[in-house]
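User: Here's a chain of 86 residues. Predict its fold as tokens.
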Amino acid sequence: MKTHTISIDFPSDILLALNESESELIKQIKISLAIRLYLAGKLKLGKAAQVSGLSRFSFETYLSENSIPISNLTIEDVMDDLGKLK
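Assistant: Prediction complete.
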């Protein structure tokens, strides 16, 4: 998979204030971005998992553990699909 690097500047004491390592902060930023893009409908679940740096299963588990739905289907969508199957 081809990647692109984006730099973000933070105040020099942010890691100390957060009591996190740089790698942990990067991991959390990637997961947060992936969730935001997924919830906004800009990325499907699989692509959001790629952005997060997690496997799809791990990303789905993370979403579930944080009460974030892994499906955007409404009851109307399900009923429409059911009607098409009949």
